[in-house]
């Protein structure tokens, strides 16, 4: 995959995650980026993490790697899990 396509795919995965966080947790989309710590997001807890996981799996139509998702510390970490499932991981 050309670098431009890889960058676009990563960005698409990040946008998918940001959209889910904004929709489910009422988080400000403009304040979220790949480096945003999940612990810094108001209302981020284990219950809401599962809500986000299920939402992303339904959106993608495929299961995510739960261990990688649970180990995620940033928005970018979750985007990497999404990219791996959607076949857009570098």
UniProtKB/TrEMBL annotation:
Residues 8-86 form the Carrier domain. This is Carrier domain-containing protein. It comes from the Bacteria. PROSITE patterns: CARRIER (PS50075). SUPFAM superfamilies: ACP-like. Gene3D superfamilies: ACP-like.
